[in-house]
Amino acid sequence: MQQHNNLINGQWTAGQTAAPNINPSDLSDVIGEYAQGNAADVDTAVAAAAAAFPAWSTSGIQARSDALDKIGTEILARKEELGDLLAREEGKTRAEGIGEVARAGQIFKFFAGECLRLSGETLPSVRPGIGVEITREPIGVVGLITPWNFPIAIPAWKIAPALAFGNCVVLKPADLVPGSAWALADIIHRSGIPAGVFNLVMGPGRVIGEALVQHPGIAAISFTGSVGVGRGIAAACAQNGKKVQLEMGGKNPQVVLDDADLTQAVELSAQSCFYSTGQRCTASSRLIVTDKIYPAFIEALQARMAKIKVGDARAAGTDIGPVVSQTQLEQDLSYVEIAKAEGAVLAAGGGRVACHTGSGKEGFYMQPALLVDSTAGMRINREEVFGPVASVIRVRDYEEALLVANDTEFGLSAGIATTSLKYATHFKRHSQAGMVMVNLPTAGVDYHVPFGGRKGSSYGPREQGRYAQEFYTTVKTAYTLA
Q1: Which of 3, 130, 187, 208 is the most buried (most CB within 10 A)?
Q2: Catalytic-labelled residue, pool 96, 247, 384, 463
Q3: Res. 270 pLDDT band, cuts 50 70 90
């Protein structure tokens, strides 16, 4: 069994223990053993990053750009291999895994350019003979805590800007999917970046994540994960004076109006709700459908769902792979039962299934679930399930659809299916979400644009694109007497 160690100060370092990485498509398949670090490992990694920071933060921008470009080039060259690994450990299909890896490579290449584009301002002072310069500088050692649902893309969109702007990094990946993060760390390690600039410490969040959040040597924390953990991190960072960036939950609405193209609306809803096994923070889990199109939409979506093939993530023809873990599967199934108990009707799927590939291998498989006749106040429409479970709310018209869409504590992504320019324009302005999609799936954001939401979904500056500098840099104002 191959052992995969932590990367601390440029050295592969064993943990006190190791944990197996299990394939959710085949529970008999162990991908490897991955180190489980502890608080002492975090101390060592932070110390190494702090020691590397003075030289790295003032290094030439061309050297940083070259290193990030080299990382991106290797990721793209190995996208099929790494995509297969991602599918094997996380459970999204191989095609989706390859697409995610390609996105990670593109992110590093984008930020290789951002190294060269960091700008400032020169302003006159209101006092004669004095000049003012406004510049951006790196913030220090950054702790990055990433989730299991995008095990290479989300680490990439945190690591790349952190390094591009001169910060040093300690990464703690999700304990369920260490393989993709370890492979990325190996590529970064061989890119020529100095020892200590990037560090990987694997292990449980209650140990490694907590140690990062509480460590006095960490200047900032970027976290993607659950609402409860995120709020705890926000409180701890406020108490300790750390900069914080949080991406948390979503209960994203997909509105379907009477005038929508039915075929298009059904396809984008199926993609938003069920693909990637519904394990995307931008997935639509609330379908808000107006009266006249409601019967035809439900019938057509049921027919579309009947064509979805659930099976081994790496098998040809699979549309949806397994749920990531037993715990997540139990949560998904429990929400179906909760919804039924509250009065929703299960119109399709919703049960645990055997692997549809005929292999006979045990995995965490679930039929996508469609719940109809639900109401906005039901738990299924208030709480994030994070699985292939969609509920449908019937409304009278656009005005009610908008009210229901915004009736949530979350505000990450929202979509509308309509042929009306009037309603599309109004929805883009009045949807209380950070990202709005018109006649497109709610899941799917380009790597060069800002990512983030409102209300309980996000806290702090946006991720991705040029907006990433707001989190990974601090502003300095300097005066000079001529």
Answers
A1: 208
A2: 247
A3: very high
Q: What's the pLDDT at 479?
A: 97
Residue 359 scores a pLDDT above 70? no
Residue 305 CA to residue 275 CA, distance in Å, equals 11
Matching residue, tokens 């191989």: 94
Q: Please tell me the distance from the alpha carbon of residue 13 to that of residue 154, in angstroms, as a whole number.
A: 24
Domain ranges of the chain: 3-248+457-481, 252-438
pLDDT at 358: 59
CA 368 – CA 348 distance, rounded (Å)? 8
| Closest of 116, 121, 136 to residue 60, by C-alpha | 116
Is the pTM value of this prediction over 0.70? yes
Architecture of domain 252-438: 3-Layer(aba) Sandwich (3.40)
Tell me the CA distances in angstroms from 374 to 19, 149, 338, 377, 378, one per residue in order: 41, 27, 12, 9, 7
Choose the catalytic residue: 115, 237, 281, 355: 281
Provide the pLDDT for residue 443: 85
Angle CA(53)–CA(114)–CA(134) in degrees, nearest 5?
A: 70
Q: Per-residue pLDDT averaged across 398-407, rounded?
A: 98
Contact 165, 136 (CB under 8 A): yes
Q: Is the per-residue pLDDT at 356 higher than 90?
A: no
**Same fold? 3-248+457-481, 252-438:** no
Question: Is 337 a residue of the active site?
Answer: no
* Helix pair 79-90, 61-77: axis angle to 10 deg: 70
Strands (E), 375-481: 389-395, 410-411, 413-417, 435-438, 454-455, 458-459, 473-481
Instruction: Evaluate if residue 318 carries a pLDDT over 70.
Output: yes
pLDDT class for 98, splitting at 50, 70, 90?
A: very high
- Outline where 78-209 has alpha helix (H): 79-90, 94-114, 153-164, 178-189
- Give residue-wise pLDDT tens across range 415-434: 999 999 999 999 999 999 99
Could you say which of 3.30.470.20, 3.40.50.11750, 3.30.390.30, 3.40.605.10 is the CATH number of the domain covering 3-248+457-481? 3.40.605.10
